[in-house]
Amino acid sequence: MPTMGPGSAAHRYALRSVRGTGDRMDRDFLIDLFADFGPVTIRKMFSGFGISADGTNFALSLRAGLYFRADDQTIPQFEAEGSKPFQYQTRAKTVTVNSYWQLPARLFDDSEELATWARAALAAAQRAALRKRPKKRKAAKAKVATKVAKKRVTKKVATKKKPQLKKRSSS
Fold first, then answer.
1. pTM
2. What is the pLDDT along the chain (171 residues), one digit of tens a residue?
3. What residue ranges define each of the domains in the chain, with the CATH number in brackets?
4. Close Cβ partners of 125 (under 8 Å, ≥ 6 residues apart)
């Protein structure tokens, strides 16, 4: 259901843009925007904010807009809406970040559908986190095994008995 009424987050955002107070979304606007989704944590990040739920970052609010985490399962939805992946410019080139896609503008007016997209973005972020964890665990286990092996070698060397010199008997 559209929520572009006088008190809605989308209405306040539109007014700020018209008044020339900038395109960047502030913390209060984001909290209002995600009200139907549920509680979110908003942290300062880069030139905007990182938005997370349950300890998982799933959205970025930057000068260029609002970007949701995406993966192979959700990218087709963004493409169907004509959205583009997040891009930034370095001195040498344009970098495309395919894991974050711009939220379709129409969703600012439909808080219930935005909440659905936010849940899908959170799920994509959680899937990405699961894919990363095993690699870290394997690397950590290998590191621990190497440290344990080194300690064993060190202990064996340290516990070897040194030959004792025979005492001469005084006769």
1. 0.66
2. 444 455 555 544 444 443 334 456 889 999 999 999 999 999 998 789 999 999 999 999 998 799 999 999 999 999 999 999 999 999 999 999 999 999 999 999 999 999 999 999 999 999 999 988 755 556 666 666 666 666 665 555 555 556 666 666 665
3. 9-132 (3.30.1460.30)
4. 56, 57, 58, 69
Structure-token pair, residue 95: 């970098």
Q: How far apart are CA 27 and CA 44, in angstroms?
A: 9
Helix (H), strand (E), coil (C) string for the chain: CECCCCCCHHHHHHHHHHHCCCCCCCHHHHHHHCCCCCCCEEEEECCEEEEEECCEEEEEEECCEEEEECCCCCHHHHHHCCCCEEEEECCCCEEEEEEEEECCHHHHHEHHHHHHHHHHHHHHHHHHHHHHHHHHHHHHHHHHHHHHHHHHHHHHHHHCCCCCCCCCCCC
Q: CA–CA separation, 147 vs 19, rounded Å? A: 61
Count of CB atoms within 10 A of residue 67's CB?
25
Whether 98 contacts 128, CB under 8 Å: no
At 73, give phi and psi (nearest 5°): -80, -30
| Cα 125 from Cα 159, distance rounded (Å) | 50
